[in-house]
């Protein structure tokens, strides 16, 4: 420790010595100067080279020579638990010095009030800032028990009453020597000041309601009256206050050290993970907080997910009670409420179930949906598609060879491969749970809650590979020949229009028959239209399967109209028979496709016949005109 220029180095002063004096810095410096000098004189009394004197007003320590090593300084700073208490308990000389400290503080406080009163200040209970060095003002235990706080709500200080009965107005006037002090305010001032005397806190600011209402001189009159009529040892109260604050600070530091545990190289910082001397990582702490928050959210969603099964069952029962047609079927066939998987035990299954439930339309009130509401929107889309197909067939122009994308592939094969690729893509989407919501709306026909655009999307939709493979083989065998015969424009128009008509016929039939839980999808209606068109275009030709031997073809051949009639008869038999020859076939969609293909073929043949008749008439007219010449 060094005494620089006769002044006490404030950085050497222990923390507790600095914190107990934050309310009155001027008095604190007098206190610290006396206590430190007394401690030095008592501890170093055997050393003759120290000749120290004290000058209280200037707070200077005149020294002939002071030179100490850094070891005592480190000891002082390293442990804040050795402070004024140890000095007061060390020797009798130090105790007598401490008593003089308290008396000096009380005298300084009185002198300050008198000087403030003479200057006419309204804010009386504040000390002036010294002209010498400034002791750092730190937060301490006293700041936690202040009665008045400028930062928050003030807690009213009542003090200690002098007697059970308050003083009268005449007594208050005689004590304060002023007629402006009311009995209530006078008794309050006396109680507060008396409480400050008992607590040793006369150096603190009085409550603002007192300082605003009464002048400082009037308050000093009350203090003189208290000292004259209610004497007490104010020095002992100040010492008790110092002891109390020092004890509280020690306890606070002990609690702080106990809570902090081992510290890193930085002051007040705990060791990091693995006893890292650089302390705790703020990033890791934030990360742990975020992870805990995410885990809590996931646990909340997990509980909601597991508890939602009962809500789904209640919703199903409510819908069944409101719709008599749905009561004919098993509730699980309408909207399944399967036991839900725990996301922790079976995460993939729970993930798939969430998308399965999300894809279901459970928010629509099926009881209020009428038959017309289910059919008319789909009818509008069907008519629109038929109009667009007719326009496309009439205006289509085959691209030139140089502008084709796949020049080495025949046009018929390119068209069929494009349709097959579209069907395969939609089939693959059915394997992806997040796509189920979109597919359930636009790629499957559901009479219970139909979407109008599903009559178009269901043409390209397959859920089972066997179904997709069967339709693909028939499309390839029939489509190539038919495409080469009628062209791309007519082929695509026939395919799409036959599929839309087949889907609409299926939807309408199931709605009218109240089979609301039957769903339909697939390209069977469109392919049925292609088969019917091929048979009707070759109604008078002998059709023979290409895989039959030549000797069998004369016996197993039939014209196109006969083949189509046999196929339609089989579909009708499978539809009306109680014993299904082939199960899970949408016979209504097939019959609608056959009807659309046959009608289209008849119109196409009629148009071709008219075109040929027109050409014959033109040629005949040309020959007649040429002969007349």
UniProtKB/TrEMBL annotation:
Its main location: membrane. It is a multi-pass membrane protein. The keyword Coiled coil applies. One of its GO terms (cellular component) is membrane. This is Rhomboid family protein, putative. PANTHER family: PRESENILIN-ASSOCIATED RHOMBOID-LIKE PROTEIN, MITOCHONDRIAL (PTHR43731:SF14), RHOMBOID PROTEASE (PTHR43731). It comes from Talaromyces stipitatus (strain ATCC 10500 / CBS 375.48 / QM 6759 / NRRL 1006) (Penicillium stipitatum). GO terms for molecular function: serine-type endopeptidase activity. It is found in: Membrane. Keywords: Coiled coil, Hydrolase, Membrane, Transmembrane, Transmembrane helix. The chain crosses the membrane at residues 375-393, 413-430, 442-459, 519-537, 558-576, 588-606. GO terms for biological process: signal peptide processing. Residues 232-259 form a coiled coil. The lineage of its organism: Eukaryota, Fungi, Dikarya, Ascomycota, Pezizomycotina.
